[in-house]
Amino acid sequence: MTRPAVPSAVSPAVSPHASAIASPTATPPGTLDRAGLAGLVPHRGTMLLLDRLERWDGTRIRCLASDHRTPSHPLRSGSGLLAPAAIEMAAQAMALHGALTAMAAGLAASPGYLASVRGVEFACWRLDTLDPEPLAIEAERQAGDGDRILYAFTVTHGTAPIARGRAAVVLNTPVVGTPAVIPSPLASSPLAALPPDTPSA
Question: What is the CATH number of domain 34-188?
Fold first, then answer.
């Protein structure tokens, strides 16, 4: 199928890479349920798209998300839950990874924002048409310093990859007042213009 292009210099949401909620003196857990995730990332309510942390180490993280078929999903449009929503799921996994690695090092997590996504490929048009099996979100830190971290991410359904790409997270971003919302690929992607029953092939 033709894979839609995603703008390479926009964020799917203003997604802090790591949360100041995390305690630098705590021992990071190996797994977490949804309630535990809410204590480590800034997302709340339905905008917390992850349901479980399965495993992580210093470079990788794997999480699950199971609400992709929910009619009230916060990223769902009139055309359904479009594939670029997987980018926000990956961004939240990266934020969680930043909080956990900072905690493991005895440091406070650095605030940061998703600056760009590149090389993104989708294997489907919509996520809400997939069966109820949870989506697996994996991110791997490929490089980084005190100002920026580069991740590769993959979102799979069962054994089939449905989204993958690379993301750059800018750290230590000063926050003055209310941050401006960066345009979302969910609005600018050609997927957003599809009627609900448009075939994906």
Answer: 3.10.129.10
Kindly list the domain boundaries of the chain, sorted by start residue: 34-188
- What is residue 112's three-state secondary structure? strand
Alpha-carbon torsion, ordered 2, 156, 77, 1, to 10 deg:
10
Check residue 119 and give left, alpha or beta (phi > 0: left; psi -120 to 50: alpha): left
CB atoms within 10 A of CB 146: 8
Residue 111's closest CA among 184, 26, 10, 42?
42
* Cβ 170 vs Cβ 130: under 8 Å: no
Per-residue pLDDT of 24-69, as tens digits, reads 556 788 899 999 999 888 888 999 999 999 999 999 999 999 999 9
| CB neighbours of residue 198 within 10 Å | 12
Q: Which residue has the tokens 């100041």?
A: 20
CA proximity to 70, closest of 87, 55, 85, 84:
85
Q: Where are the beta strands (DSSP E) in the chain?
A: 52-56, 60-65, 112-122, 135-144, 148-157, 160-171
Query: pTM of the entire structure?
Result: 0.75
Q: Judging by beta carbons within 10 Å of its beta carbon (0-12, 13-18, 19+), is residue 71 exposed, middle or buried?
A: exposed
